[in-house]
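Hi all, posting the design record for the shared folder.

TITLE: backbone redesign
STEP: 1 of 1
STRUCTURE INPUT:
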C-alpha cells in the first residue's frame, strides 16, 4: 500500500501536522504578552523549547497550543457578575450650598452697600 498524502482543504491539512517551532517573539505575539512571559513559561516547564545556538531558542507550536487549550477560562467561572449598587433615594429638591469664597464675597458686598 502506498502512504497517503495529507489532503489539503483551503490551505489546512486534514491530518495533524508535524510539530513546528516558532520564535519567542512569535509565541509572545500569539499569547498577547511580552517575551519575558514566554521565557518564564519555558523555565517553569509549561512550554517546550529547543535551543538552537548559544542564545536562541524556539518554542514548540504544539506545546503552545496545548498550553492555550489547558488554560482557557470560561468567562462565567472567571468573572463575577457585576452587581449595581443601589442608589440612595433622591429628594425632589436639591439644596446646593455655595462655596465659602462666594459667601464671603457676597457678605462683604452686602456690608459695603
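Okay, here is what came back for every position:
SEQUENCE:
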Amino acid at each position: 500500500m502506498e502512504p497517503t498524502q495529507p489532503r489539503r482543504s483551503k490551505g489546512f491539512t486534514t491530518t495533524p501536522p508535524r510539530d513546528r517551532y516558532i520564535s519567542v517573539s512569535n509565541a509572545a505575539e500569539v499569547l498577547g504578552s511580552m517575551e519575558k512571559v514566554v521565557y518564564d513559561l519555558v523555565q517553569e516547564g509549561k512550554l517546550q523549547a529547543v535551543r538552537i545556538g548559544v542564545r536562541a531558542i524556539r518554542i514548540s507550536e504544539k506545546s503552545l497550543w496545548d498550553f492555550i487549550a489547558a488554560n482557557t477560562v470560561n468567562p462565567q467561572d472567571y468573572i463575577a457578575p457585576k452587581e449595581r449598587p443601589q442608589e440612595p433615594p433622591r429628594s425632589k429638591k436639591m439644596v446646593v450650598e455655595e462655596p465659602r469664597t462666594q459667601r464671603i464675597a457676597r457678605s462683604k458686598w452686602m456690608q459695603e452697600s
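COMMENT: The chain is about 40% helix and 10% strand.
Let me know if anyone wants the other runs.
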